Amino acid sequence: MAKQTHHKIGIMADSHGDPESIDKGAAFLRNQGCTMLVHLGDICDSNRFDTADACVDRVRTLEIVAVKGNNDHTLTADARGRRNPGIRPEKLSFLEDLPLSLTVGRVAFVHSRPFVKRLGLSAMIGTIGKRDAETYFKENPDGLLLRGHSHTPEIIYRIDRQVHFAPVDAGQTVELAGKRPCIVTCGALTFGVVMIWESGEDRLTCCSFSPNQTSMRK
Fold first, then answer.
1. Could you tell me which of 27, 29, 28, 24 has the C-alpha nearest to residue 6?
2. pTM of the predicted protein model
3. How many CA atoms does the CB half-sphere of 59 hold within 13 Å?
């Protein structure tokens, strides 16, 4: 994706094998007027083979654009080594073919870290600390990185050359003007958290809906 053509983009991440959380998150975001939905990875859970088909079906049926998460990768690698994994081959192929990153204009979508060319599959794991943030800011002076993996909503930005880490609460809207470049962790579907990016106004809103469960793994 290269052009920024959607006014409201709904951001979700980390459904961890819970198809109902995908349904609920997508319905909430559509009701808020989002014309494009993006899933930031860990659609499935590497310990929940039985729900992988359903989760992939939700993403495809609801026309959700997605990137690959570490659980998606681990599940497919494990399934390929089993005689009867209980997952349809076309669903495995869908997960395997997911990209590690996507871009819309100056905005990048990843599961964890943005340095895909340097890190390869390792970009899907690990947190973003001060050093990673400084590298991203230097390479993307007006960029916005939207990520999942860490589950707790947060924004990382720079003021007077100092890197700041700030939590983002449900119901909070963050005006991105003056905060770019910045990195935003978007929360997890299984905690009932999604975000809405309004591209025209350049702002993000953290939203909560009723989750299906409250336990998850990275």
1. 29
2. 0.93
3. 30
